[in-house]
Amino acid sequence: MADNAHGGDYDAATGKTTTGHSWDGISELNTPLPRWWLYTLYGCIVWAMIYWVLFPAWPWFGGATKGLLGWNSRTVVAREMDELRASRSAMNEKLAAASLQQIEATPELLAFARAEGAAAFAQNCSPCHGAGAQGSRGYPNLNADRWLWGGTLDQIHTTITHGARWTADPDTHAGVMPSFGRDGLLNKEEISTIADYVRTLSGNAPDAGADLAKGKQLFIDNCSPCHGEDGKGNVEMGAANLTTQVWLYGPTKADIMHRIEVGGGGVMPAWKGRIDETTIKALTVFVHTLGGGK
C-alpha cells in the first residue's frame, strides 16, 4: 500500500483509498455512502424541519408548539365523533320516536338498536355483567332468561333507568332480603334446615338426614312472603326464582346458608341522567334480545 494525498493508503486490491486506520493489519476503506442513502437522509432532515413548523412538535410551556396548521389529534377525534353522530342522527330520531315494542317489530330499527345497545353495554354494563353478559357471582347472567325484576321490555327499561337499591333515585327497585342470621331471626340449625329444603326446590339433593318437612315449614314462615310458597320468586320484590339452576350467589348449601345469614342484595346504578333516553332504549332492546325476554 502506498501513501495518498489524503493521508491514507491506496489499496491495490480494491482500487480505493483507506482512511489511514488499521487494526491487526486490516485497513479501513474510505468508501463513501451511497448517494441514494444520503439523499434519503437529507430528505428526512428537510421533512423533519417542515414538520416542526407545520405540526405540534416541541415541548413548550404549558404544552407544545402548536404548528402553523393548528392540527391535533383531539380535533380529529372530535370531528370524527361529530360525523358519526350526524350519520346516526336520522336513525336515532326514529329510535327516539318509536316505542320499545315498535323497535323490536321493525327489523331496521331492531338491528340499529342492537348495535347501539351493544356498544353502550360494553362501555357501561360489562364491568359488572361481563363482556358477554354472562354475569358472575352477585351479578345476574342476562343470557339466562331469568329476571330478578322482570324480563319484559318495559320492566327491563325501568330497571336500567332507575337501577336497583340505588338510594339516589326515589323510583329505584328497593327490595332487600332480611339478614336472618345476623339479625337473630333464625339460628344456625334453622338456616341449615332451610338451605336443605331450598336445594330440593331446584332438584338438588339435600344432606343425608335433612328434615325437609321442617325446612319447608320454616321456608313458608320466613321466606314465602317474598319467594312464594312454591319458591318461584316475585319480580315486584326482586326475589329470585329458587326452582331453577340459575344461581346468583352459588348453588352449594354453604352458598345458600350464607345468603340466608347475611341477606341484603346487589346494587345497580340508575342510568337515567348518565346516558340519554335513546341509548337507554337501545340498551333495553339489546338486553331483552340477549335473554329471550318475556
From TrEMBL:
One Pfam family in the UniProt entry: FixP_N
Domain Cytochrome c: 112-202, 210-291
Binding site for heme c 1: 125, 128-129, 268
Keywords: Cell inner membrane, Cell membrane, Electron transport, Heme, Hydrogen ion transport, Ion transport, Iron, Membrane, Metal-binding, Oxidoreductase, Repeat, Respiratory chain, Transmembrane, Transmembrane helix, Transport
Pathways per UniProt: Energy metabolism; oxidative phosphorylation
Database matches in PROSITE patterns: CYTC
Matches recorded under SUPFAM superfamilies: Cytochrome c
TM region positions: 36-58
Listed GO MF terms: electron transfer activity; heme binding; iron ion binding; oxidoreductase activity
Domain of life the protein comes from: Bacteria
Cofactor note: Binds 2 heme C groups per subunit.
Database matches in InterPro entries: CcoP_N, CcoP_N_sf, Cyt_c-like_dom, Cyt_c-like_dom_sf, Cyt_C_IC, Cyt_c_oxidase_cbb3_su3, Cytochrome_c_Oxidase_Subunit
Keyword Transmembrane: yes
Residues that hold heme c 2 according to the record: 177, 223, 226-227
GO cellular component terms, A-Z: plasma membrane
GO BP: oxidative phosphorylation; proton transmembrane transport
Gene3D superfamilies: 6.10.280.130, Cytochrome c-like domain (1.10.760.10)
Cofactor: heme c
Location in or out of the cell: Cell inner membrane
Function of the protein: C-type cytochrome. Part of the cbb3-type cytochrome c oxidase complex. FixP subunit is required for transferring electrons from donor cytochrome c via its heme groups to FixO subunit. From there, electrons are shuttled to the catalytic binuclear center of FixN subunit where oxygen reduction takes place. The complex also functions as a proton pump.
Family: Belongs to the CcoP / FixP family.
Subunit structure: Component of the cbb3-type cytochrome c oxidase at least composed of FixN, FixO, FixQ and FixP.
Protein name per its UniProtKB record: Cbb3-type cytochrome c oxidase subunit
Source organism per UniProt: Methylocella silvestris (strain DSM 15510 / CIP 108128 / LMG 27833 / NCIMB 13906 / BL2)
